[in-house]
Specification:
By secondary structure, the chain is α/β, with parallel strands linked by helices. The protein is built from 8 helices and 11 strands. The protein has helices at 81-85, 99-109, 127-138, 158-164, 180-187, 192-203, 222-235, 263-275, and strands spanning 6-15, 23-28, 62-65, 68-71, 95-97, 115-119, 147-152, 170-175, 207-214, 241-245, 281-282. It starts with 5 loop residues before the first strand and ends in a 6-residue tail after the last strand. Bound molecules: iron/sulfur cluster (2 copies). Residues 17-279 form the Radical SAM core domain.
């Protein structure tokens, strides 16, 4: 059987902010949202091999062979000019990983790891790879004690979640907004599936953490915070809720003109949520 390959934009061998403990993180290329607030917009789309980025690459790290863009990381200077010029928010600097490639990486770094997290982009766009990878980890005597987590925007339909949850230990899920039109403006998609995903994951015992991005005058309004409080409280008032604060780092386009979220306002909202009964509200360690 041919196992699927993953299109990977970045690998972090160790991270302490992408799930519990120390984790290897695979950032998978491609997303089904197009959030103006995204701080990694070049992870949104898959390259269509148009070739527009080749002329800006001064090192020859990008070439086109038989109509396909090829990337040579050994001579890339990481200037990111190719990312800046891409007209569709794609990334030519991707690498195809097989399940065996990732197992080998985990094996090399295992003494320092508690698990692996697949992130994005939107990781679940490459669901077949995730299922194959997590299944292989759990069947591997040397690696099976590593936990397998997904960082997701929650747009995956219920039936698809059910195919991956048996081999998944936990999910970190983003909720962008509760009011429907606001969610559509902030992501280009409805939030119905996202809210259903949160409930489904919670019922399955796999919702490790909810994340909520505070954006001034958009998602920090009294109405949105009341809905956030009500939604989390209805699941479990002890559920970890991580508040993130909108900043300009990496953001392109109209959202560069949006105000950034300041620490005192985040702390005030966190206090309000705690006063409303949520006991596990986490605020950002840094604001950049
Ligand atoms: S990364 Fe963007 S500019 Fe470069 S070939 Fe792909 S689609 Fe074209
Ligand atoms: S980041 Fe690398 S591939 Fe992209 S333009 Fe610069 S040298 Fe070329």
């Amino acid at each position: 059987m041919n196992l699927p390959l993953a299109t990977v934009s970045k690998v972090l061998k160790f991270s302490c902010v992408d799930g519990p403990g120390s984790r290897l993180v695979l950032f998978l290329q491609g997303c089904n949202f197009a959030c103006p607030s995204c701080h990694n917009p070049h992870t949104m789309k898959l390259c269509n091999d148009c070739g527009d980025c080749l002329p800006v690459c001064s090192t020859g790290a990008l070439t086109i062979v038989q109509g396909k863009v090829l990337y040579d990381p050994s001579i890339c200077e990481h200037c990111d000019k190719c990312l800046d010029i891409c007209p569709i928010n794609a990334n030519p600097k991707v690498t195809q990983y097989s399940v065996d490639n990732v197992l080998a990486l985990l094996d090399q770094n295992k003494p320092f790891l508690n698990g692996i997290t697949v992130s994005g982009g939107e990781a679940t766009m490459q669901l077949k790879f995730i299922i194959a990878l997590f299944t292989a980890i759990k069947a591997n005597d040397k690696l099976k004690d590593l936990t397998c987590f997904i960082d997701s925007n929650g747009y995956l339909p219920e039936a698809a979640w059910k195919t991956v949850l048996p081999v998944t230990d936990g999910v970190m899920l983003d909720i962008k907004a509760f009011e429907g039109d606001l969610h559509s403006q902030l992501t280009t998609r409805s939030n119905e599936r996202v809210l259903s995903s949160a409930r489904l994951l919670f019922e399955a015992g796999k919702l490790h953490e909810l994340r909520y991005l505070l954006i001034p005058e958009r998602t920090d309004t009294a109405k949105e915070i009341a809905e956030l409080s009500r939604f989390v409280g209805a699941l479990d008032s002890n559920l970890p809720l991580r508040l993130n604060a909108f900043q300009h780092h990496g953001v392109q386009g109209e959202a560069r003109n949006w105000p950034t979220m300041k620490q005192p306002d985040v702390e005030r909202i966190a206090q309000d949520l705690r006063a409303a009964g949520l006991s596990n509200v986490v605020t950002p360690a840094v604001y950049i």
